[in-house]
Amino acid sequence: MSPTVNSPSLYRRLLIWLLVPMLALGTLMLVQAYFASRDTADRAFDRLLESASLSIAEQVKRQQGQLWMDLPPAALKMLASNAEERVFYALYDAHDNFISGNAELPPIDDGQGSMRFTNIQWHDMSLRLGVRHSQLEGWRDRQPFEVRVAHTREGREALTQTLFQGSMLRLIAMAMLAIGVVLLGVRMALMPLTQLRRAIRARDPRTLAPLDLTLPRELAELRETLNDLLARMRRVRANQERFIGDASHQLRTPLAGLSARAELALRQDDPRAWHDALGVMRGSADKTARLASQLLSLTRLNNPESMPEARDIDLCDIARQAVRDALSSCHRAGIDLGVETPPHAVIQLAVQWQLAEALANLIDNASRYGASRITVRVGEAPTRLEVEDDGPGIPEAQRLLVLRPFHRGMEGGQGSGLGLAIVDGIARAHAARLTLVPARPNAEPPGLRVRLHFPEESTS
Amino acid sequence: MTAPYRSLACWVLALAGMLLSAMSRADDAHVLRYAAPHEATAQPLEIYGALDNDLMAPLLADFHARYPDIELTYRNLTTLTLYRRFLAEDEASADVVMSSAMPWQYQLANRGHAQALTTSAARQWPQASRWRHELFGFTFEPVVIVYRRDALEGATPPDSHEALLRLLTHERQRLTGRVVTYDPWRSGAGYTYATEDAHMSPRYWELVAALGGVKAALADTTGEMLDGLADGRYAVGYNLLGSYARDFVADHPQLEMVIPSDYALVTQRLVLIPNRAPHPETAERFVDYLLSRQGQQVIRDKTPLGAVHTALEGEGTARDLRKTLGDALHPIAIDPSLLATLDTLKRHSLLERWQREYTRLSDNGP
Asked: Between chains, do A74 and B335 touch, taking CB under 8 Å as contact?
């Protein structure tokens, strides 16, 4: 399952985020254009209602005590466009009495001004009604009256359609142009990404040299991150190379010793000498085997791919077991090995074999570097494991260096130089903090206390 | 030969009756029936028309011959009865309504009482002779001047409104009492023509004054005027319906018919299919036939009504008249100005003016 299957490409994502809102906006604009067209058509045709009603109103006069008009046929013609609308007109007096007309049209009560417009539904027809308030222009008589004119909406709809189609065509043309620009723009904007991809793909898989490529700011950050990663990988590789060199050197020395010893023994005829040689060779072989197993554990610890299962374990058990394991060898060397644990279990999420390995290494280290008393201790709040000895300790300046593989705290010591490096690796695997402090700072020798602080949250 | 005049009289009287609300006329509807041969498959079609049976018969017969399955009933009503019956909600509606009363037909269609017809014949119908595909003018009848040759010897024949005005002014003595025209009060057609005439030119009022000057007789129908001209009572008749006058003049050699050359009004009979038509399919077939080349051919060949169809030529057709008269031809427009004709106040104004002009010369004259 490749990640490209699950998440859409950046190109598509950009297109979707640009085009979908654009489409929504376009739809909105179309709706707006329709309403604007209808408004314009209504305004244009309302002018017809206005002028028709005006030319009717001008013909209204008073005759024989009542309202009178000589209806101009042109006024009615004016109300109909090419769409052949149905037209209606009526003259009403001030008291809303029908005077003359071809339809009894309703008044418009709300609105301002002398000319008012509204849409009405009248006898199953939708009409646009215009009502003109006017009054007689006489010397004495200024009687008000209303001219109401109405027509059906065919002409308005036709004009709306025409206007809307025009707007729609323009909008579509603009949308096409915008889509083209967006497609081009996105392609152009993503070009550096393609360059970066090509540059990475074209690299020799063995080189870890930094990328040298001129990129836009956003991608330059990515390039810097990538270069940082490459730098770290370079360092890791250098470490590994040195480690491999050191390891092979370390393995070669005892093996060469073994070989030399065997040769020496072979030149002699005395079986006793052979026996002695074999004894020495067995010791050498044990040491080499131990070195090899330490190298193996260090490799396992350093392998980021291996994810050992962590479980809740009791640190007291671990401590007691480690002391039991080391007891006989310490006893032989005359070292006082002890354990201090709380009366109850101290539970910690950890990998059992790693902690056992760490303790074994620390006890071994202490015994090799001249301690006469070693105490393994389990503490709480914060949860910790300690190994304390009364040996010579490690000077302040050496404390970080001793964590590196094959560094020996003391020249000519018997250790492999891997013990503390392994402990450090284990501490890191558990996100625990490793501290090296003198056990008794003011005494001589100061001794050494190696402590593993486990993080608080992982206890829960 | 009197049938056309009776029909005309019917609607003219009806209009007059309605406008004055004074005259009432019994509904003496004549009915024409064409039965379908097979009762079972018969599709009914009911037509109400203000056209006389004699005029309708050739059309209906031809239609029936083409569609024998349609059981046809034609009811000849006056325009007034037609209009009232149409608006009466409880009356069963006709399938097709035909009338020469243009304003009233227009009023019905304008109120949305007509349904649209969109057959190919209807779509191709000339724009000037239809309104919204709801109202179709299917005849073309000019309004004419008829005079007696013997009575006008030595004078210029009145071949235009201008010439008529000159004639009436110059020969006032000789023509007094011998001129006849429509009575605009009593005749709806006369009123419609007066409206259109007044609209065409303000000089119409001079003509009305001149008509008053010769004490022109006022008649209700074209038939009445033609009869008076034939028996010598009148020398000149103004604003006669050309479709009737044409045949009559052909039979009376002493009469001469002229279509005014300055402008000639043309009236059309309008047909519509009501919304409430119980049999819209047969109604559509009939109106489609009326507007088809075949139907128009029958109108041209067997009636004096004048065919409108653009493809038809021959005497009395719209195409022929347009060719001879050109711009002078002035068909009464099927547009909202017809509604103005129906306005009661407008009518009063116009008739008052007419009365004033008509009596102007006689009051001041010798």
From this structure: no
Chain B interface, mutation test: which of A78, A84, A149, most B Cβ atoms within 10 Å? A84
Q: Compute the distance between CA of residue A404 and CA of residue A416 in angstroms, rounded to an integer.
A: 12
Contact between B346 and A69 using a beta-carbon 8 Å cutoff:
yes
CA A275 remoteness from chain centre: 69
For residue B303, the SS3 value is coil
Residue A49 has pLDDT above 80, yes or no: yes
pLDDT digits (tens, 9 = 90+) for A258-306: 898 888 888 888 888 888 888 888 888 888 887 888 788 777 776 666 6
pLDDT digits (tens, 9 = 90+) for A314-353: 889 889 988 888 888 888 888 888 888 888 888 888 888 8
Beta-carbon contacts of residue A192 (< 8 Å; ≥ 6 apart): A215, A216, A219
Q: Which amino acid is at A374?
A: I
For domain B3-140+268-333, give the fold: D-Maltodextrin-Binding Protein; domain 2 (3.40.190)
What secondary structure letter does DSSP report for A308? P
Number of other CB atoms surrounding residue B156 within 10 Å: 12
Check residue A415 and give its pLDDT: 59
| pLDDT confidence bin for A159, thresholds 50/70/90 | very high
Class of domain A11-162: alpha beta
**pLDDT at residue B15, rounded to an integer:** 46
Domain boundaries, chain B: 3-140+268-333, 142-265+342-364
Contacts (Cβ under 8 Å, ≥6 apart) of B153:
none
For chain B, residues with pLDDT lower than 50 are 1-4, 8-10, 12-29, 365-366
Select from A76, A79, A81, A124 the residue whose CB has the most chain B CBs within 10 Å, as the one to mutate to test that interface: A76
Domain limits, chain A:
11-162, 217-302, 311-459
Cβ-based neighbours of B35, under 8 Å, separated by 6 or more:
B42, B71
